[in-house]
Structures
1.
Amino acid sequence: MSDGNEGFSEDGETLTEEDEEGPQQISEQEAQPDVVEDDGQLPVDMFYDHEQLVSKASVSPESDIPLHLLHLSHSFGYDCKRRANLQLLDEQTLLYIAGNMLVLQDMSSMEQKHLRSSSGGGIGAITTHPNRQYFAVGEKGSHPNILVYEYPSLRPYRILRGGTVRAYSHLSFSSDGALLASVGAAPDYMLTLWDWRQEQVMLSCKAVSQDVYRVSFSPHNPDLLTSAGSGHIKFWKMASTVTGLKLQGLMGHFGKTAFTDIESYMALPDGKVVSGSNWGNLLLWDGNSIKVEICRKEGRPCHSGTVLPFALEEGQLLTTGADGAVRGWDFESINGADSHGEGSRFELEPMNELVIGHNVSLSSMVRSGQTDSFVWYAQDTMGAIWKLDLSFTHTTPDPECLFQFHSGAIQGMDVSRSSHLLATTALGRSVKVYDFLSNKQLTSGRFNQGGTALCWAPALVEQGGGGLLVVGFEDGVVRLLDVFDPQRLQTVPERSRRGGAELRLRQAFKPHSISVSAVAYDRNARILATASADCSVFFFSAGEKYRPIGCVSVPGPVRALEWSPHFHSASCLLVLCQTGHVLEVQSPDPEQPPQTQTFELSTLQTRAFFFKSIKSRIKREEEIARRQVLKEKKRREREERRKQAKDPALEPEEQPEEEEEELPSIYHPSPPSPLCCGFYSQPGRFWLAMGGYDAGFLYHCEFSENQDGDPAERQDEPFAALPIQNADQDPIVSVTFSSERRLLLCGMTSGSVRVYPLHPSDYSLQSLQHYWTLGIHDNSYGAVQHVRLSYDNQFVLTAGGDGNIFSFSMLPPDGPPQRTPHAKVPSPWAGLEKEEVAQDIEDPSAYSIATAKHRLESERLQREAELKILNKRKKLEDLRESYRQLLEENQALPTQVQLQPQELCLDVRFMEQAGRLKEQRLREVQRMYGWEEERSRLALHNLQHWFKDSLSSGVVTVVAIASNHRVSTYRLPLLPERAPDVRRPSQSSSSCSTGADARKVRAELGKGSASVTEEEVLKAPLVTRPPAVKLADRQVERLKKAAEKAEQARAKIENRKKEWAQLYAEKPDENTEDPADVQAIQAARETVGHLNLKSAPDFTVPKHLRMNTERKRGELTALEDTMRRRQEEMNAQILALRDAKVQLVAHLQGNSRHLLKVQERLPAELHRPCPTLPRMLRYKELRQTYRAAADEQEDQDLLLQLEEEDDDQSETTGPTTSQSHTPIESVGEEQVENTDLEDEVQMEEQVRLLHQQNVIIEQMEAAVREWDASLRMLLHQKLRLDQKLKLADLRQLTVLQELLLLKHFERREDSLQERLSVKANEEDAITLRVEELTEQLETKRRDISKVQERLKALSAAFMASLGENNKFEEFLTRVFKKKIERLKEKAANEEQDEDSGGDTDDDSYWDEDEDEDDADDADDADLVEWKAPLDDSVCPPKCEPALFENTLQLRERRLDLEEQLQEEKKSSEALKKDWDTLAKKKKTVSSSRKALEEDLEMMQREKQQKMNELDVVVPLRLHQMEFLSDAELLTDLGLALVLDCRELRRLQSRISELQREKSHQRELFHQARQQHVRLQQECADMDSCIHVLKERCEELMRMKFGRLVDLQALQTLSGNRVLEELKQEKCQREAKYARDIKEWDLKVLDAREALMKATRSNTKRLVNLNKLFNQKKELEHKLHLRQKRMGREFENSQSRGDQRDIADLQELVRAQAEQADALRAEFHLLSRKGGHILPPGSSDPAPQPPGPAHQQHVIPGE
């Protein structure tokens, strides 16, 4: 049973299996709305009766089991893996799906309300109305419904029918709540839009052919929808058309983005959609394509793992993902995001972020219904429900975990033996303990690995009343956990205790290497057994510390462990393996000492059983019994008819023996069916429940007495089987008994629970007949893995694969019991708080107990072996030492007494024996590996023969029905493996392309360098200058505007340059020809002219028609593929005809049955014979073939139907024939005359039946004729195809011969081609080098011209610097043109000069020629004005020093340019020599290449001649023969030419075509000539216009700027901040200077007044001085007269001495004047270059070494 209410009516009455479909139809009729308003609308206040809709439990027919046997108490689980399994009804109530139930969870009181599904098939999807007043439930099952409930009354408000076939995967209301969208799961994937208030379908269509995860309306446009799912997203629109409202869908195209499953998306206001991806990035969809992929900076994903966008609020897009974080992204940035290139991403960082936790993976979010609330509720796939505040403020509270559940399927569950406690574990790495009396979770423990098995220890092993859990984990570790009440611990200050229970690790050990599958205690609770998928069972002795006893190996992975019950004499363990093996292991002695070497318990007695399927044999026996009953029934009917017949003559003839159909064959599934569960019945016997093919029975098995042989190879059959109703597709996966064995509880694969009443002592299960069932877990994946009863048999607990845990209360016979409000938690054992926590095993790769023991034993054996080896080596060393001493003593003896080496060898046979042993071992190894080699070779051969050498398809023959025509398919062998087509690239083409690329790159590089140089010239480096002053705001704004204007101009210029560059790039070369013309010319060269035959001696094979082995092999392959494709197409047509025959046979058989029914009502004399029905000879083989073909499912069903009808044909024919005679016999017996009216009615009926008979027979004959005609037509097509295939075979033979011939020439052709390629590459390299040299020479010429132009410009600058009528022009010209040899100084001399401090320059020194000195002396002599010899390195007197210095600098620049010119000329000459050498080499290589091309052409002709010698078979008809003589065919056809008729007709029609083309080409030439002339005139006009515009532009520039300027540079000039700062500084300084001048003017006035005062005072003093001077003069005059009189007396004595003194003083003055002139000249010279000036009249002294005194320089102006 897949549904929980099958076989159960709504009023509680039991039904038979034949009436099981009735109640569902009745209930649906009762559920139809009874009240409809006048306008056809459903009333607003109409509700359905919930009791009529909800599914209930059911019981088997004729049972007295109460319907309300179990009552649901609580749900402890949560299906967190289900999509969108969380909804919010109000601020305190959550809604989610739990199996077949809806759970309404109150978050404040923690109470639950439950709603069962109406169909009993499960629930697919849920959603809530926008106003939270309604919620919709989409169910699962056959044609499920959608129920809309009102909240909080929970009454069914509307039922939506016919939306899908199997299940609903998602539901969604529109934003206004008026519409509901639903999407179905496989197989229809139907998208439906509902007017849910009126229960009407608005629009419906198939969404896609893949799983759809979500569908929703756009919150901004109700006419837009979006659906997404597995590898797709689709955009829908409700559009109004002529025929009405339509739903139009547009599939999203991923483009270059990888395909991804889309779990969630968000519609934006402008119609775009943001979706998530599997790799964590957001995808922005515009239309139906991805506009951009959004990621974080540096390419990091938005979330780690799947990303789910879920809301758009407060200007940000909220997303969550598998990394447990919620992030907010800027909506404007996302909405305007665009990629900067193909396939690029848009990088964006989140605005806000909330990290919930590391072990969190959010999959669904629902928002609180309060206005302006930021509270969200999140579904966590790791088993939690979170409350989040997404306000992203500093006061935001931390995330709150409301509920914590298991994640995924429940792997282990058990109940306490003394209290109402429940323990569970799952792969989510947690162990939880529940109180199912108060419906609370008491405690939870988390570990590093997931739990896989759990057992609650019996009370016998619990210490001091404490509970003990044994939990197995997926890494093979078993942990013992104490469960106790922490409130009962003795007070410890350092410890705080909270909660109703606590888990504490007592012991951890690792008995297995992989996951633990089962744990169980024996009946005395002295031994703990653990089992694993590693095919081993481990035993431990129970106590304070669990001690390992040993282990046993089993044939397969262990499914479950079952210890023998108490009524068995011996304690044994029943080991149930998934592969069908069952082992019974005797319980080991817990007191036996531990194993020393290994834990393997080889002494334990074991019995093995391997299940062998008997279901097919049971079905066969049932079929035999059914047929026997049917035969007996038919025999009794014949006897009754024989007794009832009055006239023996009219006794019916004996019917021929009917052909019995074949009995069902014995079938054994391969691989064997899996074992689901089992339990003991009696000693040595047990019951098994199997899955797969053997489901539907409980098999009673027992161990055989013969236990010899390998347990894995056994084949044991059960001795009895008990059928389980409705369990063929729903096997039992778990069982449990009540404490007194009065009830058997079974967990089914469909998620339902069955309860069978039993007699306590009924171990053979004879009373297992009636049952009670209820579907509670999910019907698809919620198999009930665990069923348990509480210790007092009052509660039933179930756990399934859907992660749900349910508790049920069982009604006792005398009413509900009085129970405490909560379960009793075990007390801790004494001293628990003082003990340290046991050491846990946290490393998953830790060794298991057996592995560790084995390693220890191996290490011990290794140590012992090493010790023995050391002892042996020591003994050998001692023996060697003693032997060496003997040898030394022997050597010390006299020669005649010494022993010979042969005498020292004890026995030569020892050495010979060792050699023989060595050779024998070598032979054994060779023989062993030889057998292995031969075995491998044979195995390879068998595999190749079986899988490779077989045919791809056999022969199928289809025979006509009414004739002997038949058609068969082709027998096609497997295609041979073809080597990959590895083509050698053409070296010549590659070299050409390489040379072209190199030239292109070089041109680009040259262009780039030129542009860079130009930019460097145009854009001089800016000298950074620190700002002197701060600019005003207006100046800053003006600079900013100027810069923006310059930038715009620069961008405009750049765009114009790009446009011009693109135009010039697109401009064809003057010599470029139209590609169409080139192609036409090439085609004309190939086709125009005489038709050269390939057999002509001067025939030249065109390059594009040259054939090589690769092309010929490709031609052969293409021919083979074409032939095979045509054969496969014909085979497909024949198989299609065969399928049509199958359908025709079915149709004919239906008509035959109809004809028999018509003939039953006609007299026998009016019966027309039925056409012979064709019979399928191989329909069973066809059935097996079609079963293997998944794409032909319909034909398979049809074949199965034909088989059943063929099998039943004999049964239907007999009774029909006998019944057809019954009316006639009865008429004859009654002998009653009919009235005229009755005769007329019978006649009309007879005529109508005769017409029907004729029509049916004609239809059958017409169908047969039509099918036979189709077969004959296909036969003719196959004959034509056979003819073409024969011709293709001949062509294939010819191509193969050509291929062999080409292979013969291949090596020679490859050699020539390789040599030609080498020469071509060499020629291309030389050509490339020549072009490079040519470009370099041209560059050198341009450089030389530039240098010469610079020299001319330098001379012009010198002449301009002289001016007019310069008297020093000749001297300065001689100085400027003076030739000076400049030599580079060596590094050593530089160091010496630096050390000595000489006055020579660091880089060069001057050396003058003697001839030039003589010329200079002569020139100096001509200058009369200069009295001393002149030096051209000294500025002459009266010459401007600046002009002389400028002349010297220009001379330096001239010398630099002349040196540069010489170097350029030298390099140009070297390049010219290289160019000449390469030009000669190119001619040589070109001639060699042409010779190789001629050789290759000759080889091609020879190859063509050889190919012409091959015989080609061309079948011709007589009308194709035109090589006749007097209308007779010639006997010698050697001169005949075979042409294609189409080619001949083409050549004939080509004559008129050429005439038309000739006239057309003349007309085109005339038009082109006129256009050419017109274009030339236009070009001339445009050139003149350009010239005029250019002159006008230059004129305007001169008028505006006074000279020609660069307009681009002028446009791109931006504001100069330095200039503005200087202007500002100038203004400031001007103001400052004005203030200073004003101050100085005041000072001048003051000074003038003081001057006037001083002048007056001085005038007075001068007057007084004048008076005194006059007085002095008078006195002096008087004195002079007195002295004159006295001087005459001394005159004669002093006159001679005074004359000598005067002469000396005059000579001294002249000498000082000459020295002053010499010093002035020396000052001038030292201020320029330096030098030594001699006094006038002195001769030139010898050159003196430079000294420190000569290093002084005179700085001008100092």
2.
Amino acid sequence: MIVMEDPSTVTENRINERLLDILKGDALREALVNLLVLPKSEKEYPPLTSVCAELQKIFNEASLDASSSTPAGQDGQPGATPKATETAKSSGPEAMTRVHEAGITTMVVMLRSENNSYRAKFIASTLTHLATTNTVSPKVICLRLLTDEMLVPDNEIFWVTSFAIIKKVITGVDYKGVREIMKMCLDRARQLPSNLRRSQLHLVDALYEVMSLIFDRNASLLPGYFIVNELLKLYPDYKHWPHWKLASLLTDFVDKFRRAAQMLSIMARTKLRPIVEHTGHNSPSINSWKLDSVSLKFQLKGALPYSPELLEPQPSLLRYIMRQPYPREMVCTVIDIPKKQKQRCIALEEQLVELMVSALEDCSRVDASSGVSSSNGSGGNNSTPTSGDHSPCTCAHLSSLLIYFVLIQLISFPSLVLRLHDKLKAKGSHQGRDHLMWVLLQFLSGSIQKNQFSDFLPVLRLIEVLYPEKEPLPVPDYTDPRCAMQMSAMCILMHILKKAQADNIKTPRSLPTVFKNHHEFLQSLAHNPQLPLITAGNPADYRIALLVNAYSTNQEYFQRPVLTLSDSIQGNQKSTVPMPGINCVAMGSTSPLSITLLDSLTVHVKMSLVHNIGQHIQKQAQHKSAVALAPALIETYARLLVYTEIESIGIKTFIVNHLPVVFKSHVWSILHALLEMFIHRIHHSPPQYRIQLLSTIHHMAAVPLSTMTQMTQLHLCMESVALRLITGLGNAEVMPSLTRFTFCSDTKPNLISSDSEELNRVLVLTMARTIHVTGCDSSGDSARWCVDVLKTIMTQTPHTWANHTLQCFPTVISDFYHQCPAPRENMHTLKKAVEEEYRKWKSMNNENDIITHFSLQHNTSPLFLCLLFKMVLDTDRVPPIAYKVLERVGPRQLAAHVRTLCDFLVLEFSNSAGGQHVTKYVETMNAIIWVYNIVPIDRLMLCLALRTQEGSEAHVCFFIIQLLLLKPPELRNRVQEFVKENSPDHWRQNNWYEKHMAFHRKYPEKFSPESILAEQGTLTAQYQTLPIYFSNVCLRFLPVLDIIIHRFLELHQVHKNLETILERLGILYKFHDRPITYLYNTFHYYENKLRERPNLKRRLVVAVIMSQQEIRPQGWALTEAYRQYLARPQEDIAWNPALSYYTALVRRLVNTMQGKPVFPAVEWRFNEFANSGAHALHVSCVELMALPSNPTIVANKLLDVLLKGYCDIPNGEVEEWVNAVGLLLTCLPEPYWLVVHDRIIELLQKPCLASPSSTSMDPFTMLNLEQLQSSRSDLSAALTVALAHSFWHHASFGQVGRIPQFMRDRVRPMLTTEEQLVVLCHLVGPFLQRFNSELARKVFDVTIELYEALFKVDRSVSELKYMDPICDVLYHIKYMFTGDSIKTDVEGIIRGLRPALQRRLRFITHLNLDSIENTSGSTTNSGTTTGTTSNTTVNSNTSNTNTNTTSATNSTSSNSATGTIPGNTTAQSGSGATTGSVLGAAASALGTLGTLGSSVTIGSSSQTSAGVSTSSSMGVGSLAAASSLASLLQDTSPVSTS
């Protein structure tokens, strides 16, 4: 059996033998010839040339042997399997590589052992020749040299020779290989001695030259982006470079990337702050605020030398967010930890501790300013009780955060307390200690029973530090609600002692002396049988709060006081009180627990109260009690649901548990009460619960109402609740809420009514408003979710819209309705049908036939209300049988009759003869509404406002609305009475029941038909309406009035009518739960309708905001300047505020976001906004939109506050003003924020950018805000970019998504200079990361626009000064965002750029250097003779083989930006392919040997060239095309001669 010898071994042996023979002979010859004066070529080259040829032949033969030697069973042989075939295909190149590595290893081993410089140079020459002729991959040679263990500075000849070889052949290595070589060179640099002798300098120089070549941008061996990434990964602190001799080279290279990092950084980002909303954030720009959960650093893309402040942790941002009320959702999003992940966040824990400590200082200052001292010595009864404007502790919301974060395991309670202990002990301050104990007590009271005793031991250590007194503290004044906070430390000790007792743990510590008096006081309360409660008219007494707080974990002492509290609000059936309605009574308790008392209770006590109330409600529902729930219980329950720390047992249990149980029990009185409570008392419920409630209501409404008694009243209540839920959806809540549900044809959607056209129309209007305000109306997902919802709505309730409404709709909605028309009512047919049915009514005598015929009409033509209108018009009465028909019809079907009645009224009013007929019609409708109670005014007005009427019919419809609202006195009287006698601040009231009853006694409400039948005595059983706890006709009409105003705004001909309505009924907005939000949405959505109507805008402001002036302190919303404008006469509307007005407005927002008390104190738990920042932003936007000025003027003045007035801004606050202006522009309509685009164009057209001179400021310096501020230079350009950054950072995706269109339509046409392009990169570069996370297609659009801009600038200027940073940005985009996704889009652009740019960008499209240089030779026409004008571009997509050629214009291109290595023009592919062919062996050999200090004759060169041209083994076969090869080989002689 013949054993085949390994080709690698054969190669090693042959090369070893040949080199040993040559070197042995040459040693003697060297000794002799060095004594003679001979030509250099005679000394060296005859043997070198032949040796190179021999070695080349050895390698080529070994390669052929390796590729041909395949195992048995290979492809084409018997028994070959697919797997074996595949293995064989891949084994050829691998075997060849092994052969090459083996041969090179032999040569390197010989080289490293050489002590003779001549022989070392000889081996180096052969290695270089093998690389340049592509016999062996240059990468193999470089890596083998760098990995050799003998490559150390002590081996000087090997060290210097190796790096000389690498320098000469590295140009043939692909960029990935160059990156490896660079890292290995950095590793080798560490071996150099730090203290160099003069004789060692050449060692450093050898390495330095290789590194310089790699770093040379003109050589373009490797994208500079890769180099800086590697350097910053290895040396992130820019220090500890591998050797001091390389420090300047490395530092300079990294510093050159600071410009690219500047173009990719949001200006003043560390000072930008968001507005914290109830439900997280108002736009998807939340991605821009995300921090790393471990380090709290910005999530920056790429390892670039960003400015130090961007690379630092951002704890101040997290603390700012946590400092606002209702920050939970946003905190979880910012630290980027899903709530379900249960991952502890140490950074969050640390910042919560910092926030607590700073809050304690704030609280102590507030206490000191109000004259209240903490328990460190406060006198017993010297404090005055708080007024009715009580507000909780300023750090109270921290307890909610603490509970929430511990529950979802983001923080550890013991660890947090230990951090507090260490920090406060180090400070040595006891300020605000009672506030801290109160915060800790909230968590501890509710969790100590479920956790280990050891978890709470740190609290004892903290108490020891904070209460070091040796004397007992006095007992606080129990008539002051702050007494609960002052005794919280004692309550904590009571809970811990009880826990130790329950776990049989002996506590080594006795009770501290400082709490002796507190303990004795609590003991006396526990054994006191008399527990005084806070009741109306009696002095405040909080002893029961102290008792339950201390003993909530001790059932022996807790049950009695907590049951006392529960019983005080539950009442009993022995004592009842009347309720509005017929035969309605409720349990006798009417005074709820005050909010001050509830604030004085711990979380555990509140949970117990909520649990007791829930149990009581379910018990009453199961027993189907005829006596309604006590008013005090419902009011107290509503107040308890405000506390977010008990959300899971509060609002969640209410929605998920209590409502379904009550509904299943068919206890409609309780259901009605709970629905009323939610809609009139709950202010800040999370959107998921409101959406769930809306779904539940639609489910309830789908149940056959025949099973319900009092069905009309209950149906009216459910419709009112659904209407408020839909209109109350925030602009940032609609899309997430609706897309959370799947709208399929085979499943009934939960959020869309199956039969109420009005509710579905209101949902469409809400969607339109949301899309308009958020700007999500482009394409893709933002349009898809909307269309899906609309399709489902049209399936359930087909309808159309008037043209004046469609004109206001966003494009996606208006297009849908144009494409999906629905049938409309024929008015002529309607008139005839009503007349026909009326004749039937008058002719029919049998009561059963009448009831049967007309009660089933809704299935075909619901005309019965039209008949009732004619009955009352003709006879001024409603026959008793008509009520029976209405009862049979039911409230759900009656809605269809109301719609037909509205159309019929428009028809009748349109055809009326004159004023008397109109008056008669109004009186008839007034009787139907108020006398006969057939149709409630709010339902009729809602239906009228939402009907589709065009042209004159629309005018008539609005005219009818105005007449029915204002001509009869019934509604106006009720509104005036209700507004005069009541206040919307229900949380401050304990007598709501009395005022509520007084109004209903004066204006009782009846619900047809049951109420009328009960009065007529036709009902057999005793009739009982549902008890009304909060609502009345005025409150039910308020959301309808919102819709009516919007419908009037759509038709400019009726604007005067609207002003009249606002003048008469606008006072009702005193009770609007979101007045500023409503006004903001109105001004935003109808901006183009109101732009030329300053009087109407002023009337809206007066109606909505000024109606609040009785209950709100001055300055709560509008500025003094605007209030003075409102006080002017009605005809005096001309006002163009000066710049000082806008400056004051922005300053108010800045101060508010800094935490300064700008606005009067507000109880945020019952406010429409979550915090002062959101309030300030919205009232400022409302005021700006209400100005009688063009949007462009207003927006320009806003920008001028900074661009013209930045000198007047306090030092260090410019960035905060930039943040404020950006926020304002983000929240304003499109005509306002488009001014930002105009200012950008103005900036680009400035002479310093559009036509820069030699004295013009560098654009990077011009846009460095921090540097300019320190030097007191002109900030206008930097501030313009900073304002654009602030605007886009805060912007909704609809706003920031306009960037590509802006670049294409406005920026690209006017770009002419490189400076303008640099500014453009500064503008859009920072937002690529946001595009990438929200919609990747936008990244592609922006990137393509940048390439187009570069192409245009390249054609416009002769010299490019900033192409390196611009190219760095483009590489950043490729490797961080786009990859090869847009390669085909930009490849053509890059090929059209100047050669210097092509060289720098060649790795993006995998261009070869030879194709770039040939292209440059044909385009620059430098006068050098070129061998061909054919296109030599090599497309790397079609060939993976590198084409290694020498350009014919090599000798004349030295003035270009390319740095060609002398004598070696080896090119590389931008892809990872290995180096391929050569330009011709002769030229390559000549160039290589020449650089090693040798020469060769032309003749030998041409002979070698001829030999190579006919031998495929010499690499000719790998050229791209035969014609290109021929032309290139013809150019060999001129190149070698030169």
